[in-house]
Design goal:
The protein is mainly beta. The chain has one domain: Lipid/polyisoprenoid-binding, YceI-like (Lipocalin). The chain contains 1 helix and 11 strands, in the order ββββββαβββββ. InterPro entries: Lipid/polyisoprenoid-bd_YceI (IPR007372), TTHA0802/YceI-like_sf (IPR036761).
């Protein structure tokens, strides 16, 4: 098992069967709704110069959104939210990756949702590497970041009789990443 970021040189493919690209938000101001995207591809490339020269890219099929409720998913796919007919992909492309001093990395990049691009920084904890039973070298990372959905044009909402709104503006991104090193 590798325990430091210095041993990650190479190209790594995100494994969608062992990765979760999730989110959580408040609903009706009293509970949380969790969801995820189930169809995506991504790579992380760490050159010989090290983690601070690394790059990452993720492309998500927006229609793969899954909140465990078909009606809600349908509404999220509509023009009220993601407008997936006109914006079928959500993308993230790193601009900087830097070791953060606590054994992890801060990944800053351009997140594009519904045609709007904003810079987002996601601090990741490095969980280490291990060789799986099939001989694949895997690296694990976990990270969270908070974004405002209104910044990306996801502005639909409904006022509640008791005050507040149906859907929070604040969205917490939850990423549990397993990447496999290319041979």
């Amino acid at each position: 098992m590798t325990s430091t970021l210095t041993d990650l040189t190479g190209t790594w493919d995100i494994d969608p069967t062992h990765t979760r690209l999730g989110f959580v938000t408040r609903h009706a101001m009293v509970t949380k709704v969790r969801g995820s995207f189930n169809d995506y591809t991504g790579t992380v490339t760490v050159p010989a110069e090290g983690i601070d020269a690394a790059t990452a890219e993720v492309v998500i099929t927006a229609s793969s959104i899954d909140t465990r409720n078909a009606d809600r998913d349908g509404h999220l796919k509509s023009n009220d939210f993601f407008d997936m007919e006109n914006h079928p992909e959500i993308t993230f492309r790193s601009t900087t990756i830097a070791a953060n001093g606590s054994g992890g990395v801060d990944v800053t990049g351009d997140l594009t949702i519904k045609g709007t691009t904003k810079s987002v920084t996601i601090p990741f904890e490095y969980e280490g590497t291990a060789t799986d039973p099939f001989g694949n070298l895997r690296a694990g990372f976990e990270g969270t970041a908070v974004i405002n959905r209104n910044d990306f044009g996801l502005t639909w909402n409904a006022a509640l009789e008791t005050g507040g709104v149906l859907v929070s503006e604040k969205i917490t991104l939850e990423i549990e990443l397993s990447a496999v090193k290319r041979a």
